[in-house]
Design a protein that fits this description.
- The chain is α/β, with parallel strands linked by helices.
- The chain has one domain: Rossmann fold.
- The protein is built from 5 helices and 3 strands.
- It has a 3-stranded parallel sheet, with helices on both faces.
- β1 (49-52), α3 and β2 form a beta-alpha-beta unit.
Amino acid sequence: MILTSGPSTDDLSCVANIAQQCRQSPITEFAGKTTFPELGALISHAAFFIGVDSAPMHIAAALETPIICLFGATDHQYWKPWSKNVIQIWAGNYEKMPERHERDRNKKYLSIIPVKDVITATKKMLPMDIQTIKSEIEI
């Protein structure tokens, strides 16, 4: 697993926080350091992409990399990835989202999405050969 982000202190802190919670240490050396062409190269070789409504998510769609896309309060129908191999998870399915002009810029709408639903989507997106290996290991 590779975690990437923008170069801001907040982004790098978020990546560090996610990495600390992983059972296996992810690769974080690319966080804050990749150009868009480099990010595109990483995404093109990925089994799948997990991310938010962002430029990297749209790069994944353009490269036909399978996507799990998380949407907070943004319009998940208008901004959805142009891809046939996508699982969208929208915070509005868990809590009513405010109209655009009523949104609280300090609220973290993505935090409404249950982690278990992201994990379930991830298991669905895993290539079959990896699912088989994982089930054999867990026995």
